[in-house]
Design a protein that fits this description.
single chain
Length: about 180
């Protein structure tokens, strides 16, 4: 049995579990847990990022089109992640107690991470300095609340960045202008 436990600790799945357990333990601090739960709520279905994009379009009339394209790319990344989740069907972590309720049973990839990273890429405009740290905090919060493995978050972030980049290139090719 020791050999199997030892193998699990060296495997990718074992590393995934250990990292999640370590980050999840940080949520014992009520301030950390509260912040992570708040990020989970506002990040549901990409709501925070869609709101940021629409607010950017209202406030920054000169770049309204870019903000709207970025909002569409962020929504697209969320939808793509939901589709992948339905195909992969990886169960959520069972070895830690979740600190939030989730709308679905599947964890790969993290849709919160996909929409947050897509927003960080798509809204990467001068003056939007808070977006990248907030997107990073959103990604980490999924581990603190115990509903995703690190590999779920990494895959969601990669999917979000890829969706935003490919989508922005496609939009520019289809007649869109400027950085999305």
């Amino acid at each position: 049995m020791d050999h199997i436990d030892d193998m699990d600790h060296r495997s990718l799945a074992g590393v995934d579990r250990r990292i999640l357990s370590a980050v999840h333990a940080r949520g014992r601090d009520p301030r950390v847990a509260g912040a992570a739960r708040a990020l989970s709520r506002v990040g549901e279905h990409g709501a925070l990022w869609l709101t940021v994009g629409l607010a950017g379009a209202v406030v920054d009339g000169r770049r309204r089109g870019a903000w709207m394209r970025g909002t569409a790319l962020t929504a697209g990344a969320h939808l793509v992640s939901m589709g992948v989740k339905r195909v992969v069907r990886r169960p959520r972590p069972a070895h830690v107690e979740p600190r939030v309720r989730t709308l679905g049973r599947h964890s790969f990839p993290s849709s919160h991470a996909a929409s947050a990273t897509a927003a960080a890429v798509a809204f990467g405009v001068p003056g939007a300095y808070a977006i990248v740290p907030l997107a990073t905090a959103m990604c980490l919060s999924r581990l603190v609340v115990g509903v995703h493995y690190p590999s779920d978050v990494a895959a969601g972030a990669a999917l979000g960045a890829l969706t935003a980049r490919v989508g922005a290139s496609w939009m520019r090719g289809a007649g869109g202008h400027g950085h999305a």
